[in-house]
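Sample A.
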Amino acid sequence: MLTRIAIRDFALIEMTEFEPESGLVIISGETGAGKSILIDAIGALLGNRLSREMIRHDQEKASVEAQFLEADKYLPDELVNELDLDENGELILSREINSQGRGLCRINGRMVNQSYLKQVVGYLIDIHGQNDQQTIFRQETHLKLLDRYGGTSIDLGKSEWNKQRQVCLDIKAQLDMLGRDPEERARQIDLLAYQIDELERAALKPNEEEKLIKRQKLLSSLERIQENLSGALDLISADEDDAIPALLAQSCAYLEFPARHLEPARNISRDLAAMIDQIAVYASDLRDLQERYRSQPAELEKVQHRLDLISKLKRKYGKTVDDIIHYLEMARAKYQVLQDGEKKFGSLRELLEKELSNLNLAAEALMTKRADISSKLELEIARQLQDLGMKEVKFKVDLTVTKATEENLNRTDCCQAAFMISPNAGEPLKPLVKIASGGEASRVLLAIKTILADADSLPVLIFDEIDTGVSGHTASMVARKLKQISSGRQIMCITHMAQIAAQADQHLLIEKTSDGIHTSTDLIVLDREARLKELARLLSGGIADHQARELAEKLMIQ
């Protein structure tokens, strides 16, 4: 049960909080008072689009919050376990949007994404907005409504059909890979043979390009490396009089006499001699480096040629060497499949025909289930419409099934459904869209909504001006039906019809006020006297005169 709704800074609503009672909750008010704003606010909890334009002027954010008790009775077990509801099944849902356009959804204080909030609320509330009357007359929605009424039984049949359809799609994909034209298949084999030969001769290895680029840089630098090694060797070569070893040897000769008398001079002389020996080692190492890294123009040309080949293959087969290697593996596999194509093609064609036959059997089974459900739905809707005064009405679900073929496998369903109706005795059944009377349309919609709500066990139904296009006796029948179905759930109904408002268990008035600077919309719970005044206004078109009040009292007594 929905026990509380709080709306803050949403459009013209500054702050309103109310506690819907069980049964039929009526909401009325002057045109433009903000009834649609209330529906938009509640719709935000159902995952409807929110924008920052919905934030009240000069405020930072808008928010909507709803509290439910005993929500665990209506939610599937997996959601009850995920939400970890308390013993009262309390569920507090909230959604807000700030001035930067960022939204936030919470369930029992825990942040969730919008789709999860929408999933949870979908088990608790259904809003019939003013555009539903057009939606229900679109034939493409009829099959969805029928399946929704059928529930688990239809879901299982659809699941089996979809599994079998996927089997057929997989076989068709294999046939497409083989190619339907033998000449085209031969051309593909020739092309793949050329590509495989080209790539196998290239014999690429993982990470080969990176290694070649590194080698190319070294080989391109060898000439300069040789020059610099020679320069360094010249400076430390013992064969030259002005080389460092010769100069150090002269230093040692000068220190020979001082070293006989001075300990520090002996130490320096000894260290210089060690330096001469070490420099000799460095000179030997430099000669080895010169020998090892001589210029190799032939290898450089070979490396460059290999890199050019890789670049060419990358343009044809992939962005990286790994991509090219993967392409070769795929080409080999496809080549083998095509080589065996003729034999495999025939067997796949036979298999597809068999699986298409199985798919059509699954479609017939699904069609049978839908036909059974359709019979029940026809009786239910006819009964509901009879309760709403359409005594001679006939309602039928026209079902057709399309045989599965290779060409129509992409269709997401095998059936089509169209709601047909004959409102009066002697009239032929016609598509629902042909109904001319707005009153009949509203009654059909109310009947379907009532039945689907029963099928879904929804605890809260919200009707936004269900009385559009009805008047007089029809309005009274709609009122009685709303009162009847409210015995098992909460019904919130926005209306401008006194006959409907008079049936309220709780009556709320939406009122717009202004102090000349700010305009706001408020929601007021009416007592009996205020209800009489509002009913009189609805009856008289805004002028609550004495006669209108007397009629309002009679409506409330009925």
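Sample B.
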Amino acid sequence: MVFTPFFQLPRITGLHIFLRIHQVQDDGLDYLINFTANYVKTVGNHSITALAGYEFQRITSEWVRAGNTNFPIDAFEYNNLGAGSGDKDVASSATERAIASVFGRINYSYASKYLLTATLRTDGASNFNPDHRWGYFPSVSLAWRFIEESFMNGTREILSNGKLRGGYGQTGNSNIGNRTLNYFGTGEQYAFGNTGSTGMKLTELGNENITWETTSEWNIGLDLGFLNNRINLSAEYYDRIVSDLLVTNKKLASYNEITTMAANIGKTRGRGLELTLNTVNVQRKNFLWTSDFTFFTYEDRWEERDPDWVPAPYQSAKDPIRAVFNYRSDGLLQPGETVPAWQKGLLPGQIKLKKLDKDSEILGQKDMEMIGTNDPKFTFGFNNTLRYKDFDLNIYLYGEIGRLHGPSYYDDWIPYNYYAPQDKGLYNGSKNALNSWTMDKKNATIPNILTSNVGGGAGDYFIKEISFLRCRNITLGYIIPISKKIVNSLRITATVNNPFLISNYNGLDPETDYDTRRGNDNSIGNYSYPNVRTYSLGIDIKF
């Protein structure tokens, strides 16, 4: 058989291959040594457990890259990079860090009613200067199982568990890299006379005074059980302060060669409440239904700022960490209304903005204010499990209430974009443009499609509180009756993930459509990938 090609290659008398070949090698080692010793002692109603230990971890990495172009043939691959006649590409790096820890813990219990746990941990990190290398982080917790007290005997038929607990502790964070030394970069070209040379320049300014970021937290909790623990309720309140915050971009005066450096600056405070409710709703011979409900709310604020921090007129030293600042909107301008002096050129159907600063005739930063935060008012989860003979069904839902969110693409993608008025080209707009304000639809809430960024844009007109309820998954399982001589158990499952979502958000997904609008930053993220719905079948075999 003779094979005839579809086309004939021309005869090649010389060959020059413009091939780029790179070889990258990345090696890392992680050494870990851990020693612990335990002590247990019980005398009467007194029980003591103690632990002491030492841990050392050393992590090293080496990385090298080499490349070249314009090889005469491609047979060498990366085994003869010098054969190329093009621009060589060579780079390498090496890092090493270590952390050592000494720790101890004591647990004390008296009659299983009074509980005490105390710990002390000392950590040393190699990426800090020796004078600031070690951090000391103690913690203590107390608990009282008041259900064990004699005066609670009369409540046992209703109250089956009762525990009051509280604690205080500190933890440290050293995750900022090696920032104590000055770093110099190579590759800069300088001319000395008629000769070009490769030189170095300062690329990062070190700070010998950086040290551990410390999280200090106290909490108090209450655990209750009712009706032989068929109903269990747990409530916990916490107050957390993070001090000596580690940052890599503390600003320096502009006359410095390097204008930022790593430092410890500021302090934040977070407070929150968490509730958990576990119930056995129905318990019969062949049927069981259990539920788990969680509720969580929190608030994070600044306690201290960088001493060099210069606030905008609308900011304060103790604002929420994820605060949202903007102008306040005041509806749409209607025919016959007086055009605000600070929004000259505003047309009917366009958004009016409120003026807070009475000392100026134009909109400025003093007219902006905090309109809320990007934190939800509270979050919740609800899990249900039902079992009937060899069948089981699990349904898990969760959601958020009251998170501020900017406009979706339905609200914002109108023919003349509020936040990017320079984008006057043709592109697909939102169908909401069909419902926009016109002289025939003066009650419309969608602004005039000819809108412009007159004196401050849309303000908070499109920003609203978003809430949602999402079903994360539904799983149906069945245990197939089978002889134990074959397998111990055989269970098949069918699962659907993300079957439905209920929300007042009109975009694609309230969780993944991120909104980065902060004050004067009008960037909007409407291009993220949404939660997807998936279906799956599974089989679980235990031998």
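B remarks: The radius of gyration is 33 Å. The mean pLDDT is 86.
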